[in-house]
Design goal:
0% of the residues lie in helices and 54% in strands. The chain is mainly β. The protein has a 3-stranded antiparallel beta sheet with strand order 1-2-3, with no helix packed on it. A hairpin with a 5-residue loop joins strand 2 (24-32) and strand 3 (38-47). The termini are far apart.
């Protein structure tokens, strides 16, 4: 089990045509400062062409 001791966020993205499957997909993880500002962000590409 993974636990985070600081406020954090996760966001997923998908890019592709409106009428078709996504071409690129990814996820970003970030941490926030005590006052709610973005402190760090790390992005991963899960699916890409080629």
């Amino acid at each position: 089990m993974w636990t985070c001791k600081v406020p954090s966020l996760r966001s997923g993205q998908a890019l592709g045509p409106a009428a078709g499957p996504s071409v690129v997909e990814g996820v970003d993880f970030g941490t926030l400062t005590a006052d709610g500002r973005l402190a760090t962000i790390v992005g991963f590409i899960d699916k890409m062409p080629g």
